[in-house]
Design a protein that fits this description.
Blueprint lengths: L13 H22 L9 E3 L3 E3 L1 H17 L3 H22 L5 H6 L4 H23 L7
Antiparallel strand pairs: 1-2
Helix pairs in contact: 1-2, 1-3, 2-3, 3-5
């Protein structure tokens, strides 16, 4: 099949664009968390007065964003990243619903808004990544 035939697509796959968008979202979130004074270590902080944040949580968002941007190099890698990161954030949101020791909640604080955000974003990432990985390739004649 040549590139001039109708039905061929050039450019990045949609999953790569979504991975880049999610990666940039995490990088902006990490930057906002760090600007809110999280790095000074002086007690609990809130982002926009809603989301509880901490230094390790900001670092996790920074690393997730950097990994997402890196993984958008190929569609399969982007989809696998979305599945892996979506699983981690969904599990973190579900774990925050359980009574956790004080040491864990100090490092990774999760209030109701943070739990909802982690569950929603994690689930969306899982659906996007798994949907791309499990789709059947189109058959060409």
């Amino acid at each position: 099949m040549t590139a001039t035939e109708p039905g061929t697509r050039r450019g990045p796959a949609p999953v790569q664009g979504m991975g880049m968008l999610i990666g940039l979202l995490f990088l902006v979130l990490a930057a906002l968390e760090l600007m809110s004074g999280v790095a000074d270590g002086s007690g609990p902080h809130e982002l926009f007065g809603v989301f509880s944040v901490s230094g390790p949580w900001a670092l996790a968002h920074l690393l997730t964003g950097a990994a997402a941007v890196f993984c958008t190099r190929s569609s399969r890698l982007a989809a696998r990243f979305l599945v892996a990161a979506g699983t981690v954030y969904t599990v973190a949101g579900l774990a925050a619903l359980l009574p956790l020791p004080q040491a864990v909640t100090d490092v990774l604080p999760m209030n109701t808004a943070g739990i909802c955000l982690a569950l929603a974003l994690g689930t969306a990432m899982l659906i996007l990544g798994a949907g791309w990985l499990w789709r059947r390739p189109e058959r060409h004649r």
